[in-house]
Amino acid sequence: MMKRSVATVAGALLLLCATASRADDYTDTIKLFENAGQSKAYFHNSYGYAVFPGIGKGGFIVGGAHGNGRVFRKGVYVGDSSMTQVSVGLQAGGQAYSMIIFFEDERAFKEFTSGSFEFGADAGAVAITAAAGASAGTKGASAGASGGMKDAVTAGKYYKGMAVFTIVKGGAMYEATVSGAKFSFKPKA
Questions:
Q1: Which of 54, 65, 47, 50 is nearest to 11 (CA)?
Q2: Cβ atoms within 10 A of the Cβ of 7, count?
Q3: What's the rounded Cα separation, in Å, for the pair 37 and 128?
Q4: What does the radius of gyration of the chain's CA atoms come to, in whole angstroms?
Q5: What kind and span of H or E run contains 171?
Q6: For residues 40 and 189, what is the distance between their CA atoms, to the nearest angstrom?
Q7: Are 29 and 100 in contact (CB under 8 A)?
Q8: What is the distance between the alpha carbons of residues 96 and 81, in angstroms, rounded to a whole number?
Q9: 13-60 per-position pLDDT tens digit
Q10: What's the structural domain count of the chain?
Q11: Which of the two residues, 56 and 9, has the higher pLDDT score?
C-alpha cells in the first residue's frame, strides 16, 4: 500500500510540473541556451543537439521525470525525442526545467539517435545559473536569459561525446538520488 501511495504522489507531482511543448517553445529554448554562458559556444562547435523545452520532474522518495524534445544535426531538425527518468532515493518536491544535450561528433549523435539511449548514473548536467525567465500572454510568448560569461557560471565539457545543460524554469525539489534517464528517438517523417 505504501509503494502505491508513493507512486501516486510521484505521478501527481510529475503531472503538476509537466509542460506541453509547442513549436515556438523549441525556438525560445534554443535562444535561451544560446544566450546563457558557455553553452552558446556549443552551438557552433557541436555535431548536433537535442533540446527539451519542458521537462517535468517530481517525487517523494520515488520520483520521475518526462519531457519531449527535438533533435538537430548541424542546425537542421531531424527527429523527435522523449526523455523518461525514474529515480529512487532521498527526494521531495517538483520542478520544471529545460535541457539541451550537445553531441560532440557523429559517433555521439548516432549513439543517441540509435532508438533507445540511456544516461547512466555517472553522467551529469551543468545547471546554468543565469537568471532565466519566460512569459506567455495573449500577444505571444517570450523567453530570455541574462547572457554573458559574467552572468552565467557554467563549466560545461563533453563527457563520452555529450554535454548536458539545464535551466530550471520553476518549482523546488530536494534530492539525493540514484537515477538514469532514458531517451527514445523517432526520425522526422
A1: 65
A2: 16
A3: 7
A4: 16
A5: strand 162-187
A6: 29
A7: yes
A8: 18
A9: 444 444 445 658 999 999 999 988 768 889 989 999 999 999 988 888
A10: 1
A11: 56
CA distances from 10 to 13, 18, 103 (A): 5, 12, 31
Instruction: Give the pLDDT confidence score for residue 72 in this predicted structure.
Output: 98
Q: Is 5 a residue whose pLDDT tops 70? A: no
Element (H, E) at 53: strand 48-73
Work out whether the CA dihedral 106, 109, 113, 117 comes out positive or negative.
Answer: positive
pLDDT value of residue 101: 94
- The predicted pLDDT at position 147 comes to 40
Nearest to 115 by CA among 81, 85, 84, 86: 81
Indicate the residue type of 45.
Answer: N
DSSP of 59-108, one letter per residue?
A: EEEEEEEEEEEEEEETTEEEEEEEEEEEEEEEEEEEEEEEEEEEESSHHH
The pLDDT tens digits of the residues spanning 92-134 come to: 888 888 999 999 999 999 999 998 888 765 566 677 754 444 3
Query: How far is the first Cα of the chain from the last one, in angstroms, to the nearest whole number?
Result: 44
Fill in the amino acid letter for 143.
A
Instruction: Say if residues 50 and 79 touch (Cβ distance below 8 Å).
Output: no
Give bridge partners of residue 34 from the DSSP assignment.
none
Q: What is the pLDDT of residue 100?
A: 93
Other CB atoms within 10 A of residue 111 CB: 14
